[in-house]
Design brief:
The complex is a heterodimer. Chain A is of the alpha/beta class. Chain A contains 9 helices and 19 strands. The longest helix of chain A has 19 residues. Chain B is of the alpha/beta class. Chain B is globular. The mean pLDDT of chain B is 93. The chains are: A alpha/beta, B alpha/beta.
Chain lengths: 428, 250
């Protein structure tokens, strides 16, 4: 099957309709770059399992006849609900528009957040989906954490979309700079409402300065018909720390890229994830860590549960560059298949170009452990209940490691709900 | 309580039990001894309901009902408890959670309300003290990272909480040091009751120094080849299993 190409003409016109602000030349540059390379197709190794055709077709339709944006009044209730559940400095982007009031509130609380169009931040990127994001960006958020600053609450990055009847597309962009020795917790939360089709494309760049520490919780709980591509690029300076946990609960078509670059010695990254795929969901998580210098440590564990006709992909690449001696990198990926129609594609990739390194990886795909199931049944737990207990326990290994305690209740509630629905289907 | 007649069981094409007859009455303690591979654990698993074993012949009745018709969870709720030789580690499932779920599954079956949290904790701590277990084990994953002795004590704790009518303890004494053995034996003895039957599956006579059996059976090649009182265990200890094998083959 030939992948449909993005309509550059329609894209050019759409970019032309955006404001003539500080971002305008960057949009044009991104447009030109995208014109040369186009979006990746399944012929690209990194996109072997994830076909962007439907997303491209939706984008072309939307570009040629951009739907009138919904008044985001349905979304206001969601924002209030989330604000009520998690105490955080919430920055809100709805349908690709930065919510000015949320920005003002954060500024009043001492959080240095501004519009990208008013900040001194470059948006250049070699990645096609980031170029698409830049080209179509209405505006984004720039966030600075000052040296030695420790925020009193997490920063919430709330990306909310409401699908339009004719289909819609939105971009979210957040650029974060953490100055040396600062500390901050982040909650990146994606949700969407409404039927019809929607495609959200988000890009977050996070620079963690010398000795700084970032805890990062990502929750993706989109509408079951919506598509998302999300990218998080992290740069770690000397002695910095990055702890990440990503949860994929919703969406019909999801692709996440988490790229981490270790740029300074003494840095440490721990990044985990959990994906729960049911019905016809397609959830693809690609991670890549570049150990450019040593000594440094990285550890990752992703877990997945696939039920129904879901297809889940995990691809974890670790590259130890020339001279990155003293690297200690471990990766693990474990999957639970709850249906014989579900599919898991798991691929660890290690490339080592330095001598003094310690690297390990392990991948498993399996069903619930029969011995554990039997043990629980001999204690009086019926089979469906025992299955639920073991499935939750499998997920719990990641949930228990999630950073950002303030979102703990919200997270466990969402996971409980999602797992409950997956298991209900399983046991019918 | 438990009546086994002419029980044959196989796993795949291998017949392991070849005609077991055994009757255990309420209030009795039976010991089943025998060399490795004689079928002791298989017998325990067949009574508990392991689905890998196929019963090809014979009957097992428990309190007058056909036990082989019941799922493992139904047998448990009816009051059968199997203490595993190798208790399974289940990371992510809290020990207290399993204990409470098990107690409540049985209570529900009996038409009782769920145990309240306060009553549960009080009971669990009481039983743990008896077994010399630190209450912190309640908050750990089921058997996760437990030593051999801790796992066996945890099995006895589950038994003590569930108060079964028929307890089958599969090699509960294996891998225990003398203190753990005493604690486990004390736990078992505290459950001796005119309404309860206990079956001890063991390779060595050692456990029987602490828990005195009413009857001792010797299993060899899938059959009970000798039955007697507690002196049979002592005789076995003295003469070894070869003596039984020779007697069978003679």
């Amino acid at each position: 099957m030939k992948t449909a190409a993005l309509s550059l003409e329609a894209l050019r016109e759409a970019v032309g309709r955006l404001p003539d602000d500080r971002l305008a030349p960057m949009r044009q540059q991104a447009l030109a770059q995208l014109g040369e390379t186009g979006l990746p197709t399944t012929r690209h190794e990194d996109w072997k399992y994830t076909d962007l055709t439907a997303v491209v077709e939706l984008s072309n339709r939307w570009l040629s006849a951009p739907a009138t944006q919904h008044a985001a009044k349905d979304l206001a209730g969601v924002v209030e609900s989330i604000r009520g559940q998690v105490e955080a400095h919430w920055l809100v982007i709805t349908n690709g528009r930065v919510d000015d009031a949320s920005l003002a509130r954060c500024r009043d609380a001492g959080v240095a957040a501004s519009l990208l169009s008013e900040a001194d931040v470059g948006l250049h990127s070699p990645f096609p989906l980031t170029q698409l994001n830049t080209a179509l960006l209405q505006d984004g958020i720039a966030l600075r954490i000052s040296a030695d600053q420790e925020l009193d609450r997490p920063v919430g990055l709330l990306v909310l979309d409401q699908g339009a009847e004719a289909g819609s597309v939105s971009q979210a962009r957040i650029e974060i700079r953490m100055a040396p020795n600062s500390r901050a917790d982040f909650i990146e939360y994606h949700a969407s409402l409404g039927g019809a089709q929607h495609y959200g494309n988000s890009v977050v760049n996070l620079e963690v300065g010398d000795g700084a520490q970032a805890n990062y919780l990502r929750i993706q709980d989109r509408h079951r018909q919506h598509a998302q591509t999300g990218r998080l690029d992290v740069r770690l300076a000397r002695d910095s720390r990055f702890a990440h946990c990503g949860f994929d609960l919703g969406g019909a078509f999801v692709r996440n890229d988490l790229n981490i670059s270790i740029d300074g010695p003494g840095a440490a990254a721990a990044f985990d994830g959990l994906y729960l795929g049911g019905h016809d969901q397609h959830i693809d998580n690609h991670t890549r860590i570049d150990h450019r210098v040593g000594p440094a440590e990285s550890r990752q564990e992703y877990r997945g549960i696939a039920a129904g006709n879901a297809r889940c992909v995990w691809n974890g690449k670790a590259i130890v560059h020339v001279g990155a001696d003293g690297t200690d990198a471990a990766q693990a990926n474990h999957n639970l298949l709850l249906s014989d129609k579900a599919e898991i594609d798991a691929k660890p990739e290690l490339e080592i170009y330095a001598d003094d390194v310690k690297c390990s990886h392990g991948t498993t795909v399996g069903q619930l452990d029969e011995a554990s199931l039997y043990y629980l049944r001999t204690r009086g737990l019926d089979k469906p209940f025992a299955q639920r207990v073991l499935t939750r326990a499998f997920a719990q290994a990641i949930v228990s490691r999630a950073p950002v305690a303030a979102a703990g209740t919200l997270l466990t509630g969402l996971i409980e709900d999602r797992l409950g629905r997956m298991l209900e289907v399983l046991q019918q | 309580m438990l009546n086994i007649e002419n029980l044959h069981a196989r796993i795949g094409d291998v017949e392991i039990l070849r005609g077991i007859d055994l009757a255990v009455k309420a209030g009795e303690v039976h010991a089943i001894m025998g060399p490795n591979g004689s079928g002791k654990s298989t017998l325990a698993q067949v009574v508990a309901g392991h689905e890998d074993y196929e019963v090809s012949e014979g009957t097992v009745t428990y309190k007058g009902q056909d036990l082989l018709e019941l799922d493992p969870e139904e047998r448990a709720r009816e009051g059968i408890f199997l203490g595993f030789q190798y208790p399974v580690e289940i990371p992510g499932v809290n020990n207290a959670y399993l204990l409470k779920a098990a107690v409540n599954a049985k209570r529900k079956h009996q038409g009782l309300d769920e145990i309240d949290a306060f009553e549960f904790m009080k009971l669990a701590k009481e039983k743990m003290a008896l077994l010399g277990m630190d209450p912190k084990f309640l908050n750990r994953g089921v058997n996760e990272g437990f030593s051999g002795g801790e796992k066996k004590r945890n099995e006895i704790l589950q038994m003590a909480m569930l108060e079964p009518s028929l307890a089958i303890l599969d090699e509960t004494d294996s891998g225990l040091d003398i203190d753990a053995l005493r604690a486990v034996a004390e736990g078992v003895n505290s459950l001796r009751d005119p309404d309860r039957a206990i079956v001890l599956v063991t390779h060595y006579q050692r456990l029987l120094d602490y828990i005195e059996p009413d009857q001792v059976h010797v299993l060899s090649q899938g059959r009970i080849v000798r039955s007697g009182d507690k002196t049979l265990a002592l005789e076995l200890e003295e003469k070894g299993y070869d003596w039984v094998k020779e007697a069978v083959n003679a």
